Amino acid sequence: MLALNKLHHIAIICSDYERSKKFYTEVLGLEIISEVYREQRDSWKLDLSFQGNYLIELFSFPNTPQRPSYPEARGLRHLCFEVDDLEENISMLKEYGVEVGEIMIDPHTEKRFVFFEDPDHLPLELYEK
Predict the structure, then answer these.
(1) Tens digits of residue pLDDT in 13-31
(2) Which residues of 33-58 are buried (b: 16+ CB within 10 A; e: fewer)?
(3) What span, in angstroms and rounded, lies between the C-alpha atoms of 64 and 76?
């Protein structure tokens, strides 16, 4: 078994850098650690943190192919954020024009959760504490 310490970061490639930057910083409230334009790759790299913990690397690359995002596609299924109040956060997402699915209940934990998407249709989840 590997001797892992913790999850270091999640890398996401977006189609519209400014739109995704705004979503992850203004809608989700992640904080910018650093932002670098890598001229040789025509690519932006934005390092984002949540509550002081490095969390997401947001990349832009020219002409990236679309990825299927239906619920049971192979690969990373979704990213999930824990919240204290599900309705409050759903209301805030809707204020930003983000479409939100129906509230569901986890049959194993009996906790409530809901799905929504980032600007490139990456599935995201809010899970009530």
Answers:
(1) 999 999 999 999 999 999 9
(2) eeeeeeeeeeebbbbbeeeeeebbbb
(3) 17
Rounded Cα gap, residues 120 and 12, in angstroms: 10
Q: CA-to-CA distance for 52 and 13, rounded, in angstroms?
A: 22
pTM: 0.86
From residue 76, alpha-carbon distances to 18, 21, 55, 90 in Å are 23, 20, 15, 23
Phi, psi of 87 (to 5 degrees): -60, -40
Q: Exposure pattern of 82-119 as b/e (b: 16+ CB <10 Å)?
A: ebeebeebbeebeeeebebeeeeeeeeeeebbbbbbbb
Query: What's the fold here for domain 1-62?
Result: 2,3-Dihydroxybiphenyl 1,2-Dioxygenase; domain 1 (3.10.180)
